[in-house]
What we know:
By secondary structure, this protein is mainly α. It has helices at about 10-25, 35-55, 60-65, 70-80, 85-105, 130-140, 150-165, 170-175, 200-215, 235-250, 260-270, 275-285, 290-310, 310-315, and strands at about 185-190, 195-200. The protein has two domains: about 10-115, Tyrosine recombinase, N-terminal domain (DNA polymerase, domain 1), CATH 1.10.150; about 130-310, Orthogonal Bundle (hpI Integrase, Chain A). Helix content is about 60%, strand content about 5%. Strands 1-2 form a two-stranded antiparallel sheet. Strand 1 (about 185-190) and strand 2 (about 195-200) form a beta hairpin. Its main location: cytoplasm. This is Tyrosine recombinase XerC.
Amino acid sequence: MSEPVLGFSARSDVQDVLAHWRRWMESEKAVSPHTLSAYTADVAEFLRFLTEFHGGTPPSLNDLGDLKAADFRAWMSRLAMDGLVGASRARKLAAVRNLFRWLDRSGCLHNPAVATLATPKVKRPAPRPLTEIDADRLLEEAERDREEPWIGKRDRALFTLLYGCGLRISEALGLARKDAPLTDTLRVTGKGRKDRMIPVLPAVTEAVRAYIESCPFTLAPDGPLFVGTRGGRLNASVAQHQMQKLRALMGMPDSATPHALRHSFATHLLADGGDLRAIQDLLGHASLSTTQRYTDVENEQLMNVYRNAHPRARKG
């Protein structure tokens, strides 16, 4: 037994296939480091459960092939008893399913039992966008009260890009200097290394150009567009911290995060008559159902307007 992959003792044949599975996810599926880490931890937790379930003996590859649906259900029940919400249980099940599908395709083992389990119901919270007024105020405030003026311009450029183009924070921080949105379109590589073209508003171009001109570092064409105080690629945690300071200053809720600017982009487009499928393409959503969550936000906002403004609604 060894423990290089899982961090605890497991049989060598299991460790070996897990190493191959991780390499496959990283190279062929192009999952993010966060997803790779989370899936590995979820599988490790599942194997720990099996070890405990079978009297302290770590399962072999053959044992995994012999698992019954009842074994998987016992694990899911344990997670529920431990207090994990549906979303967490669903992700852990997805990780284990991913592993078993890969084992099947690779010819290592065939176990259809895991596919018979129902995915725990997940109630995804509705996106919480900023209002148009708050979004404008935040972009203006991002540039103020900085000891280093260029940092204020950087933050405004980054947040304007998130709001004006609907980018994920990872997509924006992954841009190279040569890919700076200084024309009317921007090519972005999103999840799964899928490219999409996004129109660029003049306000985005102006903010990015102002940042580049004020940046004290030489931005190499193949180097990062957004840099930190030492000239290296800007870390997402720094951008999140900057947003945290801004929302505290402006009295905004904790939901006002960099990702909320992406939510705001979609919600405001929808409110102004944007086509749902076009918004799906702009956001890079693989499924239209993901984009449709924004219609719930729009409907909720309309109902709030009705309740607050209609005479009969006020009278009850």
